[in-house]
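The aim of this short unit is practical: by the end, you should be able to scan a pair of folded records and say something sensible about each. We start with the first protein, listed as its amino acid sequence and then its structure tokens.
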Amino acid sequence: MTLPVGGMSAGFVVSDFVAEAVPHSTLASYTFKAGIEPNVIPTTCAAQPNTFSRLVSVGRTACQDDTKYTWSWTFDDDGSSQLELWFEFPSGDDRVLHGVRNIPAEQIVWTNQQSPTGTVQAYDGPDNFTVSYLPD
């Protein structure tokens, strides 16, 4: 069940979002902070999947500071992506907040074009945004 809670924002607040393949490496790096407003300290979410020069999908992954938060990144055939977030309330409470942000293909770009061996894919969109909750 997905329920907004009285006094909470209409979505997850995401800040400092970075997604990029690491030049001259076999890793990609995803890192950001996510929280529920108001008055909830944001948690750090991150992953470093194996890849070469491209961003890749990341399965549902727990955030580092607060494992009640989980997230995933999924690519579609058209080159667009979705950042998906969940927040599970403490045991005994069956509410789950769930949200999705669609990332258009135009925000996934190739960087370091001057250096052919260092060309990598990266997210080129806003660093701070809201991921709207999905209705039930």
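Turning to the second protein, read its sequence before its tokens, just as you did above.
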Amino acid sequence: MKKTLTILGFLAAFPADVGRADDDCFVPMADWQPRDAVARLAEKNGWTVRRIKIDDGCYEIDGRDARGRRIEARVHPATLQVIEPRIRRRGRPPAPGSQKGPEGLTPQHMPPR
């Protein structure tokens, strides 16, 4: 019984969601910057915006960077500080020589220009 009370006391003192507390943006809506300001921030960083959404109280930008890579960036709604920029990679880049050209030919099989 004493062990059970100790465990329950520990769980009450340290809620399960404490580890994620830094991921969320807790700002009153009255203090938020407008969505246009987020779009300008993305443009200033050289990003092409596909979508701006709100997730866990933060702005989240989905788009592409200047090199054409998919990005996902979390932005603080009041300060417009980029909290968590991520380059989204899906799969591996194609192996050299495996990219198909016109009519499905690989580069080594294509006639010279």
